[in-house]
Design a protein that fits this description.
The complex is a heterodimer. Chain A is built from 18 helices and no strands. By secondary structure, chain A is an all-alpha fold. The model of chain A is unreliable at 21-27 and 512-519 (pLDDT under 50). By secondary structure, chain B is of the alpha+beta class. Chain B has five helices and four strands, in the order βαβαααβαβ. Chain B has helices at residues 32-44, 61-65, 72-98, 115-137, 174-183, and strands at residues 22-29, 50-53, 161-166, 188-193. In chain B, strands 2-3-1-4 form a four-stranded antiparallel β-sheet. The two termini of chain B are 29 Å apart. The relative contact order of chain B is 0.26. The chains are: A mainly alpha, B alpha+beta. Chains A and B meet through helix 2, helix 6, helix 8 and helix 17 of A and helix 1, strand 2, helix 2, helix 3 and helix 4 of B.
Chain lengths: 519, 194
């Protein structure tokens, strides 16, 4: 026993010999919930409290089946109100014109495209977790992949709104698709903006397929539980005396479960399909943000015209996306019962480390961009960096630049300290900083490059209008509304995948006892 | 020559005393190692039309059951090729053939700017092919199945493991099937009607 862990209580629990019981900080302060163990050869448990298959089902399905927690309805109403207000402002924008934004002849892209790049970047963590971590066989992804994928879909919905409404006459938006029309002209396939249309719509579609496919077995679980309660005649009253909620569940979840019945022959093809989707999503996610960066990089605007943009944008997207995952899941972890068993401190620590790494990648990109502006000898580019962004004495937007540096480069450095990167509150605060910082990054790239062109007569400041601000806040409302609906009605965790990584899922019985599993 | 797909050559299926066709026999197991070894013994007994139902994919079950690897990757490869081809055709037709447009003074048929859209469409087609191909090969969607009428079967998506040997298997013989499954450690054995 002591070969696993010097502390007997922890060792027994890890070995599955003693049932349940979270290791309290009194027992081992440095172990947190018991998953922060660093003993070589011992894998920290992915699910706490020695849960059985049935308990995993009960916990995750419980979120979708039990009455919503008290805070849910007010939170949902608030988020939906914000989303609705944003929707009305979009209506106002469409009726009146894009002049309701603070755009000028000089700054013709501002918050709209900032928000677009911000949201599309947030989506990337979902695909990264589901695809790249799947290919790398990182089993801890099971704790976060479903909610991160959901976040991807919702973020892409928010992202897609902005380029669509920024075109002004939205009733001509179909011009971006190669549809035969009476003008006999086609979209220009050499334009990065058109690549963007294809990249973002492909990304949205593939993410949706990936998310849906992952949920098929879990929908089947929810369907069978509802069906079982109906057959046993348990499960409470009919809604308004007309229809039983379980009947609705059995049909709704049953429809999307597509008749899944857990056949091993089906599982085999399912796993192959999943692996293929992961394989093609990996280059896809890298391509999407590269193509988004082409919108800028292929132009000749100083500050945009750089070759570092594709990798820099991809790193930033992963960085911002993980921050959003943490921003949403840390509160969910506190608010939902047993959430902590499935999303452990170790998972949070892993994600904090990813924030640290990608934060430094982004920081490297910032400095390299600056270096090339100097080393490249292009005085316009250097001017943009020095006089339009960085210098507090010359650049009107210096505060935006330094907010970005503080939030994105400085704040994740606290994760060098183990105590801080295993503290959910600290992680949450840093994630908040990073989210703000990543929005500012896009603002800096877009607005500070545009607001001063080659002639001083073309120098303008950008001032956001209430419509600008309202639509951005509205998009946050849309995102939150959809996420709250997801937490309430869909399987929040990949039930089948979590069961597959439990020790008792090993067909050769090695995992059932940790002393054997430790080899 | 025996051609099993021809009509009229269908093997006579078993029926219950009240005249219903037998779908097969199901046996329940409660842990992974037992069902894994049970699958090996059913495979070794020579059955072909049978299946293991589990809440999650059991690692290595394809060896225990002895079935072939799926052809899905080839379907997806075909779809990827179709996607790439249609993207190239689309861009060539619109930009170089139907309405040639001078952009940035580049040649009409320059292939370099086509790469992003070509890649995206290749990915899009492959993604659809892997989901729809997986469902089609699995015979899904199929919203009803004889097995789903059994209360015990509903626990498969929760925490139980079930082996079903179907009556259309050449070797199906109720008593022998029951004996094999019992010996493999099944906790409950039931007959399933169509």
């Amino acid at each position: 026993m002591t070969s696993i862990h010097p502390d007997k209580a922890t060792a027994e629990r890890l070995a599955g010999l003693s049932a349940g019981g979270v290791v309290t900080s009194a027992q081992r302060e440095d172990l947190g919930d018991g998953t922060l163990i660093e003993t070589p050869g011992v894998r920290p448990p992915l699910v706490l409290n020695n849960r059985s298959f049935g308990e995993v089902t009960d916990i995750v399905c419980g979120y979708a089946e039990n009455p919503a927690p008290k805070w849910w309805l007010p939170a949902f109403a608030f988020a939906a109100l914000v989303a609705g207000t944003g929707g009305l402002l979009i209506l106002y924008l469409i009726i009146t014109g894009v002049g309701t934004w603070g755009l000028t002849n000089q700054v013709d892209w501002a918050w709209d495209i900032t928000n677009f790049v911000f949201w599309i970047g947030i989506g990337h963590a979902g695909t990264l977790i589901s695809a790249i971590l799947c290919l790398l066989k990182q089993k801890w992804r099971t704790a976060v992949n479903r909610s991160a994928e959901a976040m991807t879909i919702f973020a892409v919905i928010c992202a897609g709104t902005f380029p669509a409404i920024h075109v002004g006459r939205i009733w001509f938006i179909w011009f971006v698709f190669p549809i035969p029309n009476y003008n006999y002209i086609w979209p220009n396939f050499r334009s990065p903006l058109l690549w963007d249309v294809f990249a973002v719509s492909t990304y949205a579609t593939v993410s949706l397929l990936f998310w849906f496919m992952g949920m098929i077995p879990d929908f089947a679980t929810l369907r069978d539980r509802a069906d079982k309660r109906l057959r046993l005649g348990v499960g409470g009253q009919k809604l308004l005396g007309i229809i039983h909620p379980d009947t609705i569940r059995a049909y709704a979840y049953g429809f999307f479960a597509m008749g899944w019945r857990g056949s091993s022959r089906h599982w085999h093809r399912y796993e192959v399909a999943y692996l293929i989707l992961a394989g093609i999503s990996t280059p896809l996610v890298l391509s999407v943000h590269s193509i988004v960066s082409f919108d800028f990089a292929t132009s000749v605007v100083p500050g945009w015209h750089t070759t570092i943009f594709p990798p820099y944008f991809v790193a930033g997207a992963i960085f911002g996306g993980f921050a959003m995952v943490l921003l949403l899941l840390i509160p969910a972890r506190e608010l939902f019962p047993n959430f902590k068993d499935l999303l452990t401190l170790r998972h949070l620590e892993n994600m904090a480390k990813i924030l640290l790494v990608t934060g430094m990648m982004v920081g490297f990109a910032y400095s390299m961009e600056f270096f090339i502006a100097w080393y490249g000898g292009n005085e316009y580019e250097l001017h943009v960096f020095l006089k339009n962004r960085v210098s507090p004495w010359h650049a009107p937007y210096w505060w935006a630049y330094w907010t970005m540096i503080t939030c994105n480069v400085v704040s994740p450095q606290v994760f060098w300290f183990r105590k801080l990167r295993t503290n959910p509150l600290v992680i949450w605060i840093v994630a908040l900083f990073v989210t703000v910082g990543m929005w500012f990054e896009r603002f800096v790239i877009i607005v500070t490059s545009l607001h001063r062109s080659f002639l001083p007569g073309e120098w303008h400041m950008f001032h956001p209008t209430p419509v600008d601000i309202g639509i951005f806040i509205g998009s946050c409302g849309v995102f939150l509304t959809l996420f709250l609906l997801f937490l309430r009605f869909l399987p929040t965790f990949p039930i089948a995948e979590i069961k597959a990584v439990l020790p008792q899922a090993d067909p050769h019985g090695h995992g059932a006892h940790a002393e054997k599993g430790a080899h | 020559m025996n051609l099993p797909i021809l009509p009229g050559q269908k093997r006579k299926l078993y029926t219950t005393p009240d005249g219903r066709t037998v779908h097969g026999v199901i046996a329940e197991f409660s842990d992974v190692p037992t069902v894994y070894h049970a699958a090996e013994s059913v495979r070794d007994a020579g059955f072909k039309k049978w299946d293991v139902f589990s809440p999650f994919p059991i690692h290595g079950i394809e060896h225990a059951m002895g079935f072939k690897r799926t052809i899905l990757p080839f379907i997806v490869a075909g779809a990827a090729f179709t996607g790439v081809l249609s993207a190239v055709l689309l861009q060539w037709f619109t930009g170089a053939f139907d309405y040639p447009l001078v952009v940035q003074g580049k040649p009409y048929g320059a292939w370099q700017p086509w790469l992003p859209v070509t890649f995206e469409l290749g990915v899009l087609f492959s993604a659809f092919a892997s989901l729809l191909g997986m469902l089609a090969l699995n015979g899904l969607p199929r919203w009803h199945h004889p097995l789903m009428t059994k209360d015990r079967f509903l626990a498969v998506t929760d925490d139980k493991f079930i082996i079903c040997i179907e009556a259309r298997d050449e070797q199906f013989e109720p008593r022998r099937v029951r004996e094999i499954l019992e010996r493999a450690g099944a906790s409950h054995i039931e007959l399933v009607e169509e």
